[in-house]
């Protein structure tokens, strides 16, 4: 059951396929996932009842393939690495190539492309520094928490004190990446192609938009599901 009093992050946590509908209405469910659905709709003059009806009437074939809300936390961390971190690393070289190409060819007539490049490079560098910290520090500790729960033992205190500390840093970096992708969307007028756009221009915008969509789901899975549950699990084990 979907309620207007739920946060947008909680709603998408029920079914990640809801993300596509929120994207359509420009609703930030990842970095801004802790805001209530009612508040977002009021702020942006959106019809909350209409959107809820769309969410509830989502065809079965469009529902999510994975029930992320009920994933084992270790499995969810692995999924994020295998799917979303891999997507980022595979797509960065292609975006680099195409975006630099259209800046060279079309930059004189479309100077906003240089702003797109600047923001893309910011999000690229943020993610390339961010992902290894998750893979080498945060996610292995989450695996240790899961193992401790299964074995009914208290986990050893990590060198960073509590899982809240790296999570706080990861969320700040998510905000930075989210801001940069919003800037790209604004600079491109929602990825609208100009009349003189060539095939490379079209491919670049398609790559950037897909990159943004993947990042939104990537951040949502961490901010709204993995991180809160990891904090709750650590507290439960330490207080046992």
Description:
The structure is a single chain. This protein is mainly alpha-helical and 240 residues long. The chain folds into 2 domains: 8-62, no CATH class; 71-238, Butyryl-CoA Dehydrogenase, subunit A, domain 3, CATH 1.20.140. Helices cover 70% and strands 0% of the residues. Helix 5 (73-106) packs antiparallel against helix 8 and helix 6 (112-150) packs antiparallel against helix 7 (164-187). It starts with 7 loop residues before the first helix and ends with a helix. The model has no long low-confidence stretch (mean pLDDT 90).
Structure keywords:
mainly alpha, Butyryl-CoA Dehydrogenase, subunit A, domain 3, 2 domains, 8 helices
Fold topology:
Layout: H1 8-14, H2 18-24, H3 37-43, H4 48-56, H5 73-106, H6 112-150, H7 164-187, H8 199-238
Helix pairs in contact: 1-8, 5-6, 5-8, 6-7, 6-8, 7-8
Briefly, what is this?
The protein is an all-alpha fold and about 240 residues long. About 70% of the residues lie in helices and about 0% in strands.
